[in-house]
Amino acid sequence: MARPLINIPKRVKRGDAFEIRVLISHPMESGQRRDEVGKVVPRDIINSFFCTYGGEEVFRAELFPAISANPYFAFSARAVETGLITLSWTDDQGVSGFETVEITVE
Amino acid sequence: MLSRRLLLAGATLLPLAPGHASATPADVAAAIQALTKGAPLHPGRVKLDIPLLVENGNAVAMTVAVADPLPPAERVLSLHVFAQANPLPNVIHAFFGPRSAAPRLSTRIRLATSQTVIAVAACADGTFWTDNIELLVTLAACIDEI
Amino acid sequence: MRLATALALCLLATPTLAQPRSGYDDSGPQVRAMQDDDTANPAFLWVQQGETLWSTPAGTAQKSCADCHGPATTLRGAAARYPTYDLTRRRPLALAQRINACRTDHPAAPALPPESDALLGLTAYVALQSRGLPLAVDPTGPNAPFVEAGKTFFTTRQGQLNMSCANCHEDRAGHRLGGALIPEGHANGYPEYRLEWQKIGSFPRRLRACLTGVRAEPLPPDSPEATSLELYLAVRARGLKVETPAVRP
Asked: Is B139 within 8 Å of chain C by CB?
């Protein structure tokens, strides 16, 4: 699968809120569609998503087939310390993604 | 001429027909009940932002948020979204941890048809707050199967 | 000869649309917002792949696009001139076909399959370099007979429903089909992300859906008729800017 698009500012002032935007490549097959011969296309979606910052949880979500293909999430975090932001997700097949971004807090 | 129009009109209905059941308001109520365990739902605090007229149900921009800062004892732990007429009632359950700056999430969701979408916020003091939007979904006419 | 020239001049002088209107303006605010934000436009997942491919060596000569072209920014303006006539192959090529021609000719790499993520990504990445530039396809010279062929295809009724492209996209542009607004059918944003497809896709893919929609035989991949049509559409859309990668319903 293609690499996700992640948008996080590189440097943030201490105490400020900053936006984290992720766009992940995944068909999010809902399990509702049928193929050309009428067979149901089996469900395969990203079902969980986690974001941590400096080891602490920022955001966590349980996803369902109602989330669009190529899921997009935008949420905010508080700039506390220079450190690592991790983004991870798993789909119904057990395939998981993991990305890290370094952020500098001044 | 009439048959051509019927054929084209029929094309819009076919993709909804595959024979799967749709969720009902009762399913959504049950899902909310599982979350609140019977605690009352207060209207307010949480705001669900979705356009009222959705031109295509495949990727509908949605923001769910509790805007006003709350004292720590009442802070928002999680936001939950439900759809009353999608095949399944749950849309997303979002949890906000210690490093979150605000209980707000923007994402894109799928809506099968015109319906009511409901958001529930769970706060640290055990209270639950809700907002809902009734929207119209118009679907693309020429749906390609390839 | 004079008659042919006069006819050709007539074709060029009378635009079929006084002021072409992009599908962007016919899309709702949500779709436009997705197109305007590169961080939220799902097409960029493929553009990113294209960017990687640009610098990836390929073929027996192990050369990458970058080895000959340098940075992709050197191709600014190129996509705005496509489709255009290729002297070697003696027919117009669309941008994706030109990319494959480059690949097979120079590093002698296998052509990327039509509608593959790799080809869509690379085409979108190259076309992105021309985003915002006005379409500048040359309707004269060797392109002229193919523009004419494309116009004929556009205005000829076909399929069981016996409808031509013009029946919807000119006669009824701005009206509704089911719940959807009928756009003028310009191809200035391809490869584009269609919410319908839940992925990025090419103009020939869109054309296949239209043809099966009127119950006509869809054109095979890389067909010259599709390229002539795309060439005619680019001439018809003169005045519009390249919007790749567009987002459409």
From this structure: yes
**What pLDDT was estimated at residue C155?**
96
> Does the pLDDT of residue B13 top 50, yes or no?
no
For residue range C111-135, list pLDDT tens digits in order: 999 999 999 999 999 999 999 999 9
Q: Say which CATH superfamily domain B2-137 falls into.
A: SoxY domain (2.60.40.2470)
* B79-117 residue pLDDT tens: 999 999 899 999 999 999 999 999 999 999 999 888 999
Strand B41-43 and strand B128-137: the pairing is: parallel
Q: Classify the phi-psi angles of B81: left when phi > 0, otherwise alpha if psi is within -120 to 50, otherwise beta.
A: beta
Q: Which two tokens stand for residue B50?
A: 């979705």
Cα angle for residues B84, A44, A94 (degrees, 5° grid): 125
- pTM of this prediction? 0.85
User: What is the value of ipTM here, to two decimals?
Assistant: 0.94
Does the CA dihedral B57-B59-B61-B66 come out positive or negative?
Answer: positive
C210 carries an active-site annotation: yes
Residues 6 or more apart from C67 whose CB is under 8 A from it? C57
Asked if A2's CB is within 8 angstroms of C45's CB, the reply is yes
Residues of chain C contacting residue B142, judged by C-beta atoms under 8 Å apart: 177-178, 180, 209-210, 213
Structure tokens at C184: 């003028």
Closest C-alpha to B96, from B118, B121, B71: B121
Residue C180 to residue B55, Cβ atoms within 8 A: yes
C-beta separation of C45 from C193 below 8 A: no
Enumerate the domain spans of chain B.
2-137
d(CA B21, CA B86) in angstroms, rounded, equals 9
- For chain A, which domains are there? 5-105 (2.60.40.10)
- Provide the CATH number for the domain formed by C18-248 in this structure: 1.10.760.10
